[in-house]
Design goal:
Length: 228
């Protein structure tokens, strides 16, 4: 994958979102408003997508970023689930999205069907199947986090910044695809990636609206109750 300003900015936004969340956990010493289930989904995404770490070397930058995403996401999960006093502040009842039933399983079925249709039995590749699965799963991995924020309503400043940079990462990657499609002669289009990327970005739209609204007014960042 070639580098351009949009891809670099997207990667840095992703890294910054992780750093902001780790800082928030260390400074606040609590996990209120944070979804472990979203990070468990992202860890599944990274583990199934980055199997090429063992098969193909693209660049040192590429390998470092992949390892960073896996290690940092696992660190976030471990910190919230096992480290006190943070562990005691994590409310499982608020983070109750049934992601195995409504995220992992449907994405696995969809990936299997689309991969078989696209490649046929003779062209079946388990690694490619897992890569496709990771694309589908990433598009909805943020859902448990957005549900938790809706339940808490009042969003802590660093938590809001973390979600903002995650959304910015996805938006910048859309710009990266547009740039590459226009300036790279042999760029291969991946329509599944495009559709899932746009879907994931759209999930942030409502959050972005209230995030910028709170920044403009200088008030607390509070999400509206359902039906308002």
């Amino acid at each position: 994958m070639s580098m351009n300003i949009f891809r670099l900015a997207g990667d840095m936004s992703h890294v910054f979102s992780i750093l902001v969340l780790l800082l928030r956990l260390r400074v606040a010493k609590n996990a209120q408003g944070i979804s472990v289930r979203t990070h468990e989904l992202f860890l599944i995404v990274f583990l199934t997508r980055y199997l090429d770490l063992f098969t193909t070397f693209y660049s040192l930058y590429n390998s470092i970023m992949k390892i960073l995403y896996i290690v940092s996401t696992a660190s976030i999960i471990y910190t919230i689930k096992f480290q006190e006093p943070i562990k005691s502040t994590y409310d499982k009842s608020q983070d109750s999205f049934l992601y195995w039933q409504f995220a992992v399983a449907p994405c696995a079925v969809l990936a299997s069907v689309t991969h078989l249709i696209g490649s046929g039995i003779s062209g079946f590749s388990f690694i490619e199947l897992l890569w496709t699965f990771s694309i589908y799963l990433e598009s909805i991995a943020i859902l448990p986090q957005l549900i938790v924020l809706q339940r808490y309503r009042e969003v802590e400043n660093l938590t809001g910044n973390y979600i903002f940079f995650m959304g910015a990462y996805r938006f910048l990657y859309i710009l990266n695809w547009i740039y590459r499609a226009n300036f790279e002669a042999h760029y291969q289009h991946h329509w599944v990636v495009y559709i899932c990327g746009v879907l994931q970005t759209l999930l942030y739209v409502d959050f972005f609206y209230y995030y910028f609204k709170s920044k403009k007014s200088g008030g607390r960042f509070t999400l509206p109750t359902k039906g308002t």
